[in-house]
């Protein structure tokens, strides 16, 4: 199979999935419309990282070989593919100067139609040539499906959006929606249906955080009004909040932070703290005014008197949260936004309290002569509690000790996790099939799982994303459901575990390092057998931890079925057959050449691959593979079984290597194993 090299990013899952409907397009035309028009337009959006199509097909010129004719004529799949690459091509031919002008020379060998391509003559050695149609049938069609997308049991062509690292989910998604609406207007027969998006949850978190900030600010201002009973002083305190928050946003932008759930949590936490320093300053200024001083003089005296205390309280907050922002490791990368946002916010509030608040108070407050300060029923009760506390100093000390003991007890008993499990409107199911399972077999299991999911009253829609051997089902839950998403997953998980020959589980919200499970542990060593036995032992031991661990398993314990071909080196050497030529002949015949090395068929707007391979029925017959012609050094061909032994075997589904600093072993095979912690 063609190797795939992809970059793994911690940004997360795609931010949105969309299905496309088109009344006047075939599935091949719709697939190309997404790849050519939709993807290009969306990738022009600033911050868009990737647009991936799911389902659909890719147009190909299919050259379906006839094994019997190939054996009779002694021609190999490699020869046919190489001939098409050399013959069916348009190339530059140099330059000429005729009639006093310069002309470019082009050699046009590209066929115009699939029928013309079938008439291509192929040299097979010994001065002999054949036409392509003598050994294969040629058709303008599409390739075998590598992925299938289904919504409500019907095939669909879908695509997903991924933001670039550092970009805003909300901004990228909203701009993408605008582009999709423009495409719909320009193509009346096209309709985009939203299947899933995580941006709605992000927006809800944003609005709830802002509401919490506003509520905290309003409550702080109300408390100031109740205690000081001066609307001018209250207004000065209220002004301190935006004067502190706006520069905080500016500093966040300078540091490259965005409004994520941690920075919003920090802003919500400091919503009341932003006004603390200003409250201390304005309360002391009002107290000095009620001693009979003018507002100007009271501002000077009160600011000088309280300045050290204000700086000390602010620095105590900085001393707590600055180390949080400077934490090393993965956790530090998460909490960097949180810690630095709090620090910047409180330092900004300190600057406002020390410079702006006294200045405004000096010119905005109105002195009313000598007055009492600190009276009122609420203040009287507060002062009474304060006096009692000062007389019975053992009471607050004892209360602090009890609170500390209770905190330690709760810390040891409350379950701990990095991110909280939350009730969301979305869920995801992963399906892992037995190695060797075809895409049709995977589709059948995915359809059964999706049918069970769609029967649940909480489910609004389920999107199936199917590939060979694995599948994912994205579930959208109704907003007015009775059960939370956590209760829904717990109730359905035992029924999903009953599907035979498949591992069907809900993906953990914690991620599990990309495995979809709560906890993933990697064992590393240079002895694969020892790794496998150790992993199996650990899994059995983990099963005894009832209530703590659920369904631990080794993720690399399933073996993939293989057909092993071992060259007969003596015979192969005498015939001039190399192991590389064996591999190439078999690969091209069974799955076709990789796109980079395949012949191309030129269209007006693109080039499509010419796929040379055996028909699907022939690939199911081991004797056909055994009789595949293999080219020899003399120009002829011999059956594969003549120069190699063919047998069945098995191998690992994945091979991973971990880089080490050891000079003796720069890389060692690793065996991953994982377990799921109960929630």
- How many separate helices? 20
Question: Would you give the CATH topology of the domain at 60-142 and 560-652?
Answer: Multidrug efflux transporter AcrB TolC docking domain, DN and DC subdomains
Query: What's the quaternary structure here?
Result: single chain
The assigned structural class equals alpha+beta
**Level-1 CATH class name of the domain at 60-142 and 560-652:** Alpha Beta
First-last Cα distance:
39 Å
Percentage beta strand: 15-25%
Molecular shape: elongated
Largest sheet: 9 strands, antiparallel
The Rg value, from CA coordinates, equals 36 Å
Second-tier CATH architecture of the domain at 60-142 and 560-652: 2-Layer Sandwich
Question: What would CATH call the homologous superfamily of the domain at 60-142 and 560-652?
Answer: Multidrug efflux transporter AcrB TolC docking domain, DN and DC subdomains
